[in-house]
Specification:
- Two copies of one chain form a homodimer.
- Chain A is mainly alpha-helical and about 220 residues long.
- Chain A is built from eight helices and no strands.
- The longest helix of chain A has 25 residues.
- At the A-B interface, helix 7 and helix 8 of A face helix 7 and helix 8 of B.
- The structure holds a DNA duplex (18 and 18 nucleotides).
Chain lengths: ~220, ~220
DNA sequence: GTCTATACTTGGATAGAC
DNA sequence: GTCTATCCAAGTATAGAC
C-alpha cells in the first residue's frame, strides 16, 4: 500500500522518499507500536523494499527519533505562534489560547505528535535520550506560562499543575475524534475546568464560554 | 536474580511460583516494555528456565492479561472501599477521598497498576479485548461519581471531565516519587484544582487544605 | 514442577548488482 | 535510489527426560 499524499498520479509533484518514509513510519509506529512494526512493513507502506530504507535512514532507531523530533517541533511551533498577539489578553484568555493551540497541534499532526505521547515512554533508551532536550524545551514553555499566570504558586505546585494539565490534554488523543476537527469546545472545557474548576458550572464570565455553546 | 518477596530463607513461607512469576512479569513489563521483555528474562527473574513458565501460564499474552487484570482489581477495590463511609461528606470531600484512593492504589501497587496505564495502549489486540470489560467497569465507577457531584453537566461533559481527571492522576506515575509514599498533598492539589480551579490559589474553605500544609 | 534441547519464525542490518 | 540475496541474532513455544 502506498501512502496517499500526492501519489495519485505522476503529475502531482511526488513527495520525496525520505519524507514519505517518515510519514508512513509515524503512522505505523503510532498504530502498531515501534517494536511491532518491522522495516519490511514500513518499506511496503512506502512502496519500496526493506533494504532501500537504509539509503535514507541509518537505522530504525534514527527513524523513530526523526518522527518524535518532528512531533515536538509541531508542538513548540504552535505554542510560540499562540504566544504572539496575546498581549492585551486576560489571564484566562491566554491560558485558553495555549490550550487550544496545544490540542490543535496535537490533533492536526496526529501521527507525529501522538506518537510522542504514546511512544516516548517505551522507546529505546538511545531514542529517549536524543529527544529529551526537545521535550524539556517544550515543558519549559508551559512552566513559564503557568508561572506567569500563577505567580504565588511554588515551583513544585507549578510542576504538578503543568503535568496535570498537559496530561489531561494529551489524554484526549485516545478518544477525541476530530472528524470535523473542532477542538474548540473541548479546549474551552479543559481551560475552564483548569482555571475555574469543575464545580463552577458555567457562571464565571462570558469569555469562558464564548465558543462553547453556539446555539 | 530472584524476586525478593519471602525468598530470603526457606523458613519464611515461599511465595508460589505462579504468583512470583506474575510479580516479576509486572515489574519487567513496566520497566522494559512487553515486547522487549523475553520469557528468558522473566524466567531468570523468577529463578527458573523459560520452558518452565508454560507449566503456569499458557502463553506470554496470558501472562500480560493476568498482570493487567490484577491491576484493575486493585483500582476498583480501592474505589469501592473509599466509597464506603463517606455518607456525611461534602461533595469536595467525596471527590478528594476518591482522588486519594486512586493515587494510593496506583502507587502502592505500582507494577500492576502503572502497567495498566503504560502497557494497555500497546498491548496485543487479544490482550486489550480481554481486559476491556474490567476497564469499562472502573470507568463507570468514576462516571457515576461525577454525575452525582455534577448533576447539571451533560454526559459528554462528564466523559471529558472524567478523562481529564483520570489522565491527570495517571500522569503522576511518570514523576511522582513516593519515596515515603505521601500522596496526600498531591491528592489535595489535584482534587482542589479539579474542583475549584487553579486560579483560586487557596481561598476556598479550610477543608480543601486541611492536610495540605502541616506545619 | 522444573530441566534440556530444539523446532520454527521473524527481524534488523549489510553487500553488491542494476 | 532501489532491488535481491543473505547473515546473524533473538524470540516463542513444544517435547520429553528427570
Amino acid at each position: 500500500m502506498f501512502y496517499s499524499i500526492g501519489m495519485s498520479t505522476a503529475s502531482t509533484k511526488p513527495i520525496g522518499s525520505r519524507e514519505r518514509i517518515l510519514a508512513v513510519a509515524a503512522e505505523r509506529f503510532l498504530a502498531a507500536g515501534y517494536v511491532e512494526t518491522s522495516l519490511r512493513d514500513l518499506a511496503s507502506d512506502a512502496g519500496m523494499k526493506a533494504g532501500s530504507l537504509y539509503y535514507h535512514y541509518p537505522s530504525k532507531d534514527h527513524l523513530l527519533i526523526a518522527v518524535l523530533e518532528r512531533g515536538m517541533e509541531f508542538m513548540a511551533d504552535a505554542f510560540e505562534r499562540a504566544a504572539e498577539s496575546l498581549d492585551g489578553s486576560t489571564d484566562f484568555e491566554m491560558l485558553r489560547a495555549h490550550v487550544e493551540a496545544h490540542l490543535r497541534a496535537l490533533h492536526d499532526n496526529r501521527p507525529y505528535t501522538a506518537g510522542h505521547v504514546t511512544l516516548f515512554r517505551t522507546a529505546p533508551q538511545f531514542v529517549r535520550e536524543s529527544i529529551v532536550p526537545l521535550r524539556d524545551h517544550y515543558e519549559s514553555l508551559w512552566t513559564a506560562l503557568l508561572v506567569r499566570l500563577l505567580p504565588e504558586r511554588s515551583s513544585k505546585e507549578i510542576t504538578m499543575l503543568r503535568l496535570g494539565l498537559v496530561g489531561a490534554m494529551n489524554a484526549s488523543i485516545d478518544w477525541l475524534d476530530t472528524e470535523r476537527g473542532d477542538v474548540g469546545p473541548f479546549a474551552n472545557l479543559i481551560a475552564e475546568q483548569f482555571w475555574f474548576g469543575a464545580s463552577s458550572g458555567g457562571g464565571h464570565g462570558d469569555e469562558a464560554r464564548a465558543t462553547k455553546e453556539k446555539p
